[in-house]
TrEMBL record:
Domain DUF2470 as annotated: residue spans: 148-222
Entry-linked Pfam families: DUF2470 (PF10615)
Source domain of life: Bacteria
InterPro entries hit by this protein: DUF2470, Haem_oxidase_HugZ-like_sf
Natural source organism: Streptomyces paludis
Protein name: DUF2470 domain-containing protein
């Protein structure tokens, strides 16, 4: 399974919604504290792009050499229609500063830097603390950029095959009631998670024979799963 640091890094580098929480900053609307872009630097710092007139930029500019505490909260929502769509959240807390003006920065945008002091994640795998050095050295899942479209494709074009995976659950699969829907709710390099919904609602994890490195390897892994279910 992915480590807590990898899961956190994946959420940060995904397209999940994020909001920057700055204690003491009153009057700002939630959308004003949502970065336009975010990325992770080589030392694990998180770079956030905001409109130059955003409350976050004003706060970081006003703080100057003082430490400005901030928390980046990321909310992960399943890209398919399924009960309990929030798949997880991650929090990265640390110190916010304004980066020096850069010629490459788009006019009207300002780059802020969050030096991570601590982090935690609470997702489908469980709740875990993450050390800053582990976050810095972790890599995001290689499928993160394609996960949403992959899940939507599986749900719309391969719903029968996904439903057939119930046959790999043994007695648990046999005990599910008729009409139980099977929705692919998460996918990563290690496997596929399916949410079975109906009278019962539960998640089942289907691991790949070995971790995949890209979408091409994923196709082979998915065919292997479907063939096992059909056989």
């Amino acid at each position: 399974m992915p480590s807590a640091a990898e899961r956190t890094r994946t959420l940060v580098q995904s397209t999940c919604s994020a909001v920057l929480i700055i204690p003491g900053l009153d009057g700002a609307l939630p959308h004003q504290l949502m970065p336009d872009l975010r990325s992770v630097g080589p030392d694990g710092e998180v770079f956030l792009v905001f409109a130059a007139d955003s409350p976050a930029v004003r706060a970081a500019t006003h703080a100057q050499d003082d430490e400005l505490n901030a928390v980046l909260e990321i909310t992960d929502v399943a890209p398919v229609s399924v009960p309990h769509r929030i798949r997880g959240r991650a929090w990265l807390s640390g110190w916010l500063t304004r980066e020096p003006e850069q010629a490459a920065m788009e006019p009207g945008r300002t780059l802020l830097r969050l030096e991570v002091g601590e982090a935690c994640v609470d997702d489908l795998w469980g709740a875990d603390q993450v050390e800053p050095e582990d976050f810095a050295s972790a890599a995001a899942d290689p499928l993160v950029e394609h996960e949403a479209e992959l899940l939507q494709h599986l749900h719309t074009a391969h719903s029968a095959e996904v439903q057939s995976l119930r046959g790999l659950l043994g007695e648990r699969g046999e005990s599910t009631t008729a009409g139980t829907a099977a929705v692919p709710v998460a996918i990563d390099r290690f496997g596929l998670r399916v949410r079975f919904t109906g009278v019962q609602c539960f998640d089942a994890r289907f691991d790949f024979p070995e971790p995949v490195r890209d979408v091409n390897e994923l196709r082979y892994a998915m065919h292997t799963l479907f063939d096992a279910a059909a056989g």
